[in-house]
Amino acid sequence: MFCWFWSTVFHIRDFVFTERMDYFAAGANVLYGLYLAPIRIFKLYRPTYACILRIWGVVCIAAYTAHLYFLLGIRWDYAYNMAANVVVGSITNILWTYWSVRHYTRLKSFWAAWPGLIVMWLIMAMSLELLDFPPVAGALDAHSLWHAATILPGMWWYNYVHVRPC
């Protein structure tokens, strides 16, 4: 919700502050995906992994803090920000694809394929963001289509995470 909120605010009012909040919220969203994936995939939520879970949380918070420090304190760099988000998102996608393939081949259950299918959808949607094109009819550009393409997988993912145990 935080990510969508700041994206909406930025696209309504393009100021330095709203742009940065859009980027920071998007980065937090992508990094949270990476934070959550190993917890669900490797069952780090179990009490026996409490120490590892704490360390993983500190590593993720430190990485996000370092990212913000670089952008705000050293140099505001769009290419670095995009690359950082693509790398973190790709690692998350690889983890969920691994999980999905492993469970689907073992269980032959369609619900086990969901994470892999959602990852495929998001990769196709991300190609709109990475392979930008000029607006069609002066209104419909790759970025707007990317935003539209992220609505359904968000709802699909929420349904999967809250209905199916990993």
TrEMBL record:
Chief site of localization: membrane
Locations listed in the record: Endomembrane system; Endoplasmic reticulum membrane
Membrane topology per record: Multi-pass membrane protein
The organism's place on the tree of life at top rank: Eukaryota
GO terms, biological process: GPI anchor biosynthetic process
GO MF annotation list: hydrolase activity, acting on ester bonds
GO cellular component, one term: endoplasmic reticulum membrane
Transmembrane segments: 23-41, 53-72, 78-99, 111-131, 143-161
One Pfam family, short name: Per1
Alphabetical keyword list: Endoplasmic reticulum, GPI-anchor biosynthesis, Membrane, Signal, Transmembrane, Transmembrane helix
Coiled-coil region(s): none
PANTHER family on file: PER1-RELATED, POST-GPI ATTACHMENT TO PROTEINS FACTOR 3
Family of the protein in this entry: Belongs to the PGAP3 family.
Function: Involved in the lipid remodeling steps of GPI-anchor maturation.
Name this protein carries in UniProt: Post-GPI attachment to proteins factor 3
Organism: Tuber magnatum
Record lineage: Eukaryota, Fungi, Dikarya, Ascomycota, Pezizomycotina
